[in-house]
Amino acid sequence: MSAYAVYQELFPPQTVEQVETSHFTSADAINLVVAKASLLQIYEFVEYIPDIEEEDEDETLDDQELANERLNENEDMTLTFPKLKPLKKNTADKTSGRLELVAQYKLNGTIATMGVVKTTSPRGKEGCDSLLLGFSDAKMSLLEWSPATNSIVTVSIHYYERDEFKKEFLTNPYPSSIHIDPQQRCAVLNFYDNKLAVLPFRQADKLDERQGDAEEEDEAHKWPYSPSFLIDLESIDPRIKNVIDMVFLADYYEPTLAILFQSEQTWTGRLASVKDTVSVVVVSLDLQAKIYPIIYSIDKLPYDCIKLVAMPKPVTGVLVIAANSLLHVSQGSPGVGVAVNGYTKKLTEFPGMLYEDAAINLGLSLDGAKALAFGGDRCLIFMQNGNWAVVQMKMDGSKIVGMNIKEIKHELKRDSQVLAPLATVPSCVTNVKNGEYFFLGSRVGDSLLLKWKYSKEGSKNQEDDFMFRVCDTLLNTGPIVDMTIGDVESNQKTEEEEENTTVAGIPDLELVSCSGHGRNGALCVFQRHIHPQTSFSFDQSDSQAIFSIKCRKELPFDDAAGERLRKSTKTVVDGEQEHSRWEKQENDNVFDEAFDKLLFISKSKSTMVLSAGDELQELVKTGFYTRGPTITVCTLFDATRIVQVYATGVMILTPEGKRIHTIPIRGAKIVDASIRDPYILLTLENNKILALQGDAATKDITPIQLPSYIKETSIAMASIFADTSGLFSSVAEKTATLKAKAAAAAAAAQAVKGNQKKRKATDENHHKSETFKKPNTVPEFDEVDMDLYGETLDEALNTVTSTPSVVPDTMDHQDDDDEMLYGNDTSNPQMDQQTNMITEEIDEVNVSLQGGPLNEITRVSFWSIIYTTDGTLQIYSLPDFKQYFVCPQFDIAPDLITDHGDIKEKKTHQPSTIIQEIVMTNIGKERKDPHLVARTETDDIIIYKAFSFVPNEDKLSERLALRFSRVHHEYISRKSAAATSSSLGEENKNKKKKEIIDEFEIPGPDLEDEVKQTKKTVQHRKKLLIPFNDVAGYAGIFVAGPQPAWLLCSCKSFVRVHPMKTDHEVIGFTQFHNVNCKHGFITVDAKATIRLSRLRTDGVIYDLDWVMQKIPLGQTVHKIQYHPVMKVYAVLVSRGLPVRLQNEDDVPEGEAAIQDEREAGEFLPEVDKFSMIMVSPVTWETVDEVEFEEFEQCFSLQCAALESKQTSTGRKYFMVVGTGCLRGEDTTMRGSIRIFDIIEVVPEPNNPQTNHKFKHLHTEDVKGAVTAMCNISGHLASCIGSKVIVWSLEDDESLVGVAFIDVQIYVTSMSSIKNFILLGDAQKSIWFLGFQLEPAKLSLLGKDYQSFEVGCVDFIIDDKSLYLVVGDTSENLDLYQYAPFNLQSFGGQKLMRRGDFHVGSQVQTMVRLPQIEKTENGLEYSRRHFCLCGTFSGSISVLSPISEKTFKRLSTLYGQLVNNVQHVAGLNPRAYRLIKGPKQRMASNRTKAVLDGDLIFEFAGLSIERQKETTKQIGTTVSRIMEDLVDIERSIDHF
Length: 1535
What we know:
This protein is mainly beta. The protein contains 24 helices and 89 strands. Helix 11 (731-768) packs across helix 12 and helix 17 packs across helix 18 (1007-1021).
C-alpha cells in the first residue's frame, strides 16, 4: 500500500547565509538583501534617533541632530547656530539604524550565492540595482523590483547545467558562486570547480560603438545583457583546478579576476612531502575579443589559504586569508605575509612570510573567517570564535611592507544589559552605509547590524581605537539540533479555570528547540497560538460588545500655551491618533499613558457604563444612553467630549456623563458608525450614509452636505481613516514632492555654504518672535531649515503638505489670509483635504537620510473608505467627498488593488456578499503603516498593505498616488463555506432565525415579526475586525469569532496572523489600559465572560510566523528532553575548553608538561566540557546543574519510562545520559550510561522555581561510546559502539543487560514504537529491529540495502499502516515500510521505499505527535501520527499522513499550481522537490508519495477569481479544496 503524506514548512528558515547591500527598491533606499536558505528577504535600512530618557529639555535633541548633521557634512564647527549647546563628545552616536522588512519570498530552491549589479535596463537608468541569484546546480536568475506591483520581477534565467561539464558521475561537490565586476561590466558564475560562465552587461556609455544601429539599440533596450559564454579555466592556465575563491579587482581597464586555487591537494598529515600548494592567478577578461591574458601570478602560497579580499586604493592588490597567516599579493610585488600564530613556521616556507612576535603571540585561528575591507588601508576580519581582528597595512610608498594586527575581543558579561556584538561562526558580512554601519550575518547566532566609529585620536602610538554598537538584530532560531514538546506553563491559570481547561482533552503544548553554537547557544520556545495572561475575569450576562474610553477634563484655554496645546493635540482621538514616531510632546505622551476612564458594555436590550478606576463600578444617574445596545463610543474635540452612537441617534456628552446634545436619526436605523475626531460617519440599514462634522471652537456638531452621487450609491460599509503616514496624497502632490526633494538636495549643499552668515541675525530674532497661529496648521520652523532646504521646506522634508504653488514665500508670514485663499477653495486640488499639522520635534537627520514619516510636520488627512453593495471600493476625501480612488471588483480579492480612474460604471453587477467587513487602520510597532483588512463570508482574512506609486499618465493628477498589495499569510478560517453559502431569500430568513435563536437575542416566540427588528442587532453583531492602537505597544487588529486571531507586525515582519486559543467564541474586544491591566485588553466571549488580560511581553517575540521566546544559555546546546511528571526540561550543554592530552594512566602533571611544551602562539586544541542543566519552563532559568568529567562527551539524552516499583503503574520516568570518553585516537573509547531521577526539594528562599534537583542513581560503565538510546516496553535500549544492548533496571539501582544484537558502523539515532526499534546508521542507512520480552531477544526484521548517511529517524502512522521516516544528510526525507508480504521485499528482509522528498535543509531531529480530529465529542486525538522536523536552517516543518482521496485531489491541484503560478526567479518546484544526493539517485522504487504543501497552501492566497478558475480545471470546487486545507491545518494544530 502506498503512503500518502503532505510536507509543509510551518516556520521559515532563519539562518542568514548570504547578504548584499543595494539600491534595490528605489534609487535612494539602502536595501539589505538577505538569503536564508530558501527564503529571500529584502530589508530597508533606516536611520533614526532613538528616544533618550536622560534628556531633561525637549529642545536638546534637535540641536544635537542639527549639529550632528553639520558634522556629517564636514563643515566648520565654529559657525554659530541658534541655541547651539556645547557639543557633547558622543554626538555621532546619537543616531541608530534599524532594518525594516520590505518583502520576502519563499523560493523553490536554496540560494547558493548572490550578487548585485546595475544594468542599463530602464530600472537601472533610474539608479536602481538588479539582483543576481545563483543556485547550487549552475542556474542564475536576474531579478528587478517593480514599483508598480511592489514585488520582484524575474528578468531572465540562465542555465549552464550540462552533463558534459560534470567531472563526477553523480554528484557535484563544488558550490557555485557569483562574482561581479565592480564597474558593472560583467558577472561571472563559477561552477563545477573550474568552469566560468560570463554574463556581459551592455554598457550605456561606450564611445567606440557604431551609432545609429537601430536594431542593436532596440535589442539593448530589450535585454540589458549580451549573450553569455563559458570559459574553461584550464584553457587559460592548465594548472587551475580545485578553485578555492575568486574576486574581481577594481581600477583595471578590462574586467580583471584574481583566482585562488590549489593545483595539487594536500593536508596536514602530508606536509612533510607536499606543502605550499596554493597559487593566485590574475586574469584579464577581454569580453569583446574573448582573449584572457594572465597579468601576473604567484605560487607556493601556504596550503591553508581560504579566501581572497580585493583591497581598495591606496593599497590595491588582493589580501589572501589563510588559516594561520595573512598574505598580500599585488602586481610587481613578490608577496608579503604575516604569521598570526605559532604553527605557521611548520606549515609553510613562503619566502615573503614575516614572523613578528607581536602577531604570532595573538594566536589567532583564521579558519572560516570572513573579511570586510574598509577605510582604504584597513580590513576587518571576523573569526569563527566571535572575536574580530583589525588589519592595517604598513606601506612604504606604494609598496606593502607588513601589517599591523589588533584583536578585538568580545567578553560576555553575565549581568550586563549591553549586547556584545557576538556572532560566532559568521557566514557573511557587508557594508551597509559606508564608513558607518555594517551587517554581520551568522548561521548559528543572531545576525547583527552594527554601527562603528573609528577615532584617530591615538594615531601617534598606533593604538587604533574602534567603537562598536549593536543597532539591530535579526533573530535566528537555527541550527535546530534537537527539540522536544512540553506543556505550556507560562500562562498561570486561575484555580477555577484549572478544573475545566484542556479543550476536550487536548493540552496546550509548546515546542522547545536547541539552537545556536558556542556563546550563541540558546533554547527557542515556539507557540503557534497567543497565550495571554488573564489577570481577572467576571461574568456579565448577555454582553455583546465592549468599549473603553480615555477622556480628559476641559482645559481653560486662556493663555497661548493652552491654545497651542489644544491645536497640537487636536487630532489625538481616543489616544489612537499616531503622531510622528520620535516626538516628545509631553502633554500628549502623558495623555497616551493615561488610564482608560470609562468602560461601556453593550447588551441586547441595554448598555452598562462602568468607571474604570482601581476597580470597575457601574455608573448610574448619568446622561449616557442605556436603554438599548450601543453601536460605538468614541471621543471628539481632543478627548473632551464623548460620542455615543446607538440605533436611532447620536449623543454628545461631557466626560462626567452630562448630556449636551442629541442628534436623532429618523427613517432608517444606524447599523455602523466610524468616528475620527472631528468627523462621524454613520451607515444606515437602507445602505445610505450620513456624515457629521465637529467644530473645535464651538464644540458643535453639524451634518455635512453629501454630494448627490454619494446619496445615489448603495453603500454596504463606510469608515473614516486618518492618514498620518503621508501615503495618502494625490499624484500631483507626490510628483511635486519628488521634484522638490531633488531640488532641495541640490540646494541644500549651496544653502549651507552661502546662506549661513547672512541669516545669523534673523535666526536670533526669529526665535524670540511668536509662532503664528492658524486654525488648522501650527508650523514652527527654524530658519536653519530654511538655510538647508531653501524655500520649499515641506517638500524637502518629504511631507506632502502641498505643492510649491501653495507655499507662501516666507514661512513666518503664513496667516489667515492664506487660509482664506486656499483652505476651502475646492477648485484648488491641493488643499482639498483639510490639512492638519501637528508640531513635533525636528528630525533632520532622518529627513536628510531617509525622508518618510519621521519628520517635523505630520499632516493628518481624513479619508472615507466606502464599499458599495456591488463590490466597489472607493476612497473619498473628507469633508467634501471628492472621489480620489476607485477599484471596481474588490470582492474578488485581487493581488493588487489599483485605482481605475473615473470609470462611470454600468450598474449591472450582482449585489456581492463575499466581503462582510472592511477596516483600514495602521498596523505596526516601531512604525505604523496603513493596512486594509477585509473579512470574507467564510471568515477568511484578506490583508492589503498600502504603498505609494506614481503613474506616468498626466490625466491622473487628481487621484491618489497609492496602491495596495496583498500580504500573504498562513491563516485559514475553519468556518466551512457550506454554512455561509445559503444566500437564497427563504434560507436566509431561516438562517437569521436560527442565528437569532442561537444568540439568545429573542425573548418571545413570535419570530416572524421579530426578524425585521433584530436584523439590526444581527448585522451589528458581526463586527469581528476590531482595531486597537496600543496593546503592549503594538497597533493592529483583533479578529473576534470562534477562532480569534491577532494581526500584529513590527518593522522586521509583515502583518502576522497569530491565532489565540479560547474555549468559547470571542464576540467583543477592546484595548484597556488600567492600573491592574497596563496596556492590556478585555475580551467578551459567547458565554458572557469578560476577561482582563495582557499580552506576554517579557522576551516574547510576535514578529515571526510563530510566537517565540529565545532563552540564551551562553554555551552550545546539544540535547533536550522534557520530564512530563515534574514538568521541567533537562538540557545537555557544553563549552569548549583548551586541553592537554595525557596518557590513559594519567602521568603526574610535571612530567606531562615536559613532554608537550608549546611554543608561543601555539594554541591548544579545544575539547567540549559537558554538563546537564535543568530548566524551569515558568521562568526559563537554570535551576540545577550536573557537571561531567573532562574528556567525557555526552552523546545522548533520553527521558525513559523504565520499570520501577515506586509507582502504581510500574513505570517511572528517569533521565538517562549516554556518554563516551574522548582522549584522542590512541586510546579506545569507553563510555557510561548514567541514570538520574528528578526529585522535588524545598526551594531556595525568594525563588520558587528551584524546587527540583537531579539525583544520581547509577552509572553503568560500558566498553564503547553510548551514541543513541530509546526506551522500549519499560526497558532501555542503547547503542554501544557497534552493538545494541537492551537493559532492564533492577530495583532502581542497577542495569542488567537482557538482549543484544550486532549492528553496522556507528548508530546516529534510534526511535521505538511498541516493541519495534528503528536505527539510523552514519553510513549504512536504516535497520528495523523487533524486541521480544519472554525470553528476551532482539532480532533483525528488515533493513535497507542502499548505503546513505542518516541524520535522524522516526515513524508516521496512518491508522493501521506504519511508515519509517528517515532524514538523511543529503537534505531529503525518505519513507520506508516494513512489508513482509510484498514479493520484492524477500519476506520483509528488505525495507520497501515508499516515497521521498527534498527538504532543502538537513533534518536533524523529529518529534512524533497524534493528529487532532474533530468528532462529535469535540476535538480528539486520531489514529494518525505525524512528524515535526527541525532543520539546520532553523525551519520547522511537518510531514503528515493524509487520506488517499485528499492526496489525489490535492495532487492534481499541485499540477495546476506548478504551471499557473508565477514562481520567483523562474525556479521549478517539481525539480526542487526531487530527491538529491550521490547515493540516493540509485535508490529503487521511487514514488511521488509526498506532496509539497508549501505550494498547495499558496492556493488560499490566490484571488477568488483565480481560485475558481483553477478548481474548475481540475473538476472540483473551491470550498472542497479549502476544507482539505483546513483539515490538514487543524490536524497538526497542537501549539
